[in-house]
Amino acid sequence: MARKHPQYKKVVLAYSGGLDTSVIVPWLRETYNVEVICFTADLGQAEELDGLEEKALKSGASKLIVRDVRREFLTDFILPTMRAGAIYEREYLLGTSFARPLIAKHMVEIAEQEGADAVAHGATGKGNDQVRFEVSVMALNPKLGIIAPWRDDKWSIRSREDAVKYAEERGIPVSATLKSIYSRDRNLFHMSHEGGLLENPWAKPEESMFVLTASPQAAPDQTESIEISFKEGVPVALDGAPMDILDLFMTLNDLGAKHGIGRVDMVENRLVGMKSRGVYETPGGTILYKAHQALESICLDKATLHMKLQLAIKYAELVYNGQWYSPLREALDAFVNVTQRTMTGDVRLELYKGNVIVSGRRSPFSLYREDYASFGRMDIYDQQDAEGFINLFGLPNKIEALIAQEGGGRSRYAAPDYSRFKRD
């Protein structure tokens, strides 16, 4: 049974200018008889923003609104996630994930300003972005309607070829969207690649696929040393020179790209339940994460660091799953903010052929004391004290082993037999 369509008058569409959103504009007008306002967030897509207004208007939009949100993206989304140490499934630095709630925030603002009663997006029904967009809109203005064409029973476009035909029949220019077989997302933090030959997890990515970074093999043969200074977990200077946060990050992007840093090839678990292969380029972000981790290693006590590492997994899940606007994420930020009070200092890094190598870290709040860590004689720590500690710490193991011996048994900690795994 077909779903009844709500009666909307004006819709704000998250617009990229790609094939899908180019055909969604006329589809919304024809299907819902609505005015379509396109919105594009400038997240650092560079040349991808060229010619967008002309394309949007030719597609049938009443206007295109572009907002430069790069600084907001960096200060309000990238840095909090980095300070939290959030990494999804050990490798993904969440470059697309935390961009979606920012786009949704501005879509809601524009809808309210323009008197629109609904928002729309071009995310498919298989991916994560549909959740990120819609959950964010629900949290910010639950009264707005949401149109997801790829899940709509009136949406008959099922392939790239269908979309091209649909656009050509309506005189919509789409040639610029057909240059790549890959599905990509780009912003100042990263670029993602999906689809094409990457759908085979055994297939090696083509070097021509990469856009932001040089290959490690083609990177300079000389190591480049840099020094990043932090104040309360926020980078504030590069090589001793204070810099605007956006300029600093873009400089790190250039350095990382030059040295082939930040490439990740992974198979991840999507929120909707299926696995997906993605290849990511995150040059500046990779450098920044590594530096921040190095500073935390000397400024955080053991218990706080270990708890932070556990909470970082939950933080990454929240961001990946589109739950940026949630009480739990706010609560985790409160914890992170406390941990960053003493995160002030400098980290020296060596950049070389895809590697970020920490070669020094220092802080006025460092908990590392050379005199305490020394193997020599010291007054604050008597090495003989360790004997009593070890006896108490190992007591449960000792008791279990004694009981086993008295019962004629043997230790359950015998080495496993790996011979059965040998190939014939």
TrEMBL record:
Domain Arginosuccinate synthase C-terminal spans what residues? 182-399
Q: What positions does the entry give for L-aspartate binding?
A: 124, 128-129
Q: Where in the cell is it found?
A: Cytoplasm
EC number(s) reported in the record: 6.3.4.5
Instruction: Please name the InterPro entries in this protein's record.
Output: Arginosuc_syn_C, Arginosuc_syn_N, Arginosuc_synth, Arginosuc_synth_CS, Arginosuc_synth_type_1_subfam, AS_cat/multimer_dom_body, Rossmann-like_a/b/a_fold
Q: How does it assemble?
A: Homotetramer.
**What name does this protein carry?**
Argininosuccinate synthase
Give the originating organism. Answer: Candidatus Thermofonsia Clade 1 bacterium
Q: What is its main location?
A: cytoplasm
